[in-house]
Amino acid sequence: MSITTKTGDQGQTSLYSGERVSKDHIRIQIVGALDELNTHLGLALSEARDTRHLEDAALTRVQGELLELGALIANTNSTDPSVSKPAMLEALKQLELEITQFEDTFPPLTNFILPGGHPMAAQLHVARTVCRRAEQLLVHLDSSYLPYLNRLSDWLFLKARELNHQQKMKESIWKPSK
């Protein structure tokens, strides 16, 4: 089967359920933002491999969760057993557990920090901003998944801090202009 079907040449695409929608449909925008986020995580993991850091199983796990979420968003048939809302609830609980562990590791922030540091950490900050955009789009469709994306953006922020800390990269404190 070829990846080129030409069925989208007129500005329409298929949802997971088979329904045809415009390529600018809110579901397609959300799935696109989730795909972009997943791609940024893949780039961060490539950076980890290229610099001989340990691969991060948690990032790979989150990539799978994002695919799961994308399938849920692209499926208008809620009775389809191939997608699982309970799995997303478990993913949310795992993120919350890891956020608590991160927060116990670092002193509380008293200033804003500038995104950056190690290239992989900077890539995680980019992923965090894409996550926020996906969250903003999701507000228009299905609020039941908002907690997952909200926690994920926090998790990505802390993951970037963790990596910078491990690599002994000093965080840049934002200083407002006078």
Quick overview of this protein structure:
This protein is mostly helical and 178 residues long.
Describe the protein's architecture and organization.
- A hairpin with a 5-residue loop joins strand 1 and strand 2 (20-22).
- The protein is mainly alpha-helical.
- The protein contains 5 helices and 4 strands, in the order E-E-H-H-H-E-H-H-E.
- The chain has a single domain, classed as Hypothetical Protein Ta1238, Chain: A.
- The protein starts with 11 loop residues before the first strand and ends in a 5-residue tail after the last strand.
CATH superfamily grouping: Cobalamin adenosyltransferase-like
Compute the CA-based radius of gyration: 18 Å
Sequence of strands across the biggest β-sheet: 1-2
Approximate shape? elongated
The biggest beta sheet is recorded as: 2 strands, antiparallel
Q: Which percent bin holds the helix content?
A: 55-70%
Quickly give the CATH architecture.
Up-down Bundle
Strand content: 5-15%
Q: Give the H and E element order.
A: EEHHHEHHE
Number of strands: 4
CATH topology: Hypothetical Protein Ta1238, Chain: A
First CA to last CA: what distance?
61 Å
Number of helices: 5
Q: Tell me the structural class.
A: mainly alpha
Our count of domains comes out at: 1
Name of the level-1 CATH class: Mainly Alpha
Low-confidence stretches: none
Structural features:
two-stranded antiparallel sheet; single chain; two-stranded antiparallel ribbon; elongated; Hypothetical Protein Ta1238, Chain: A; 178 residues; 6% strand; mainly alpha; 5 helices
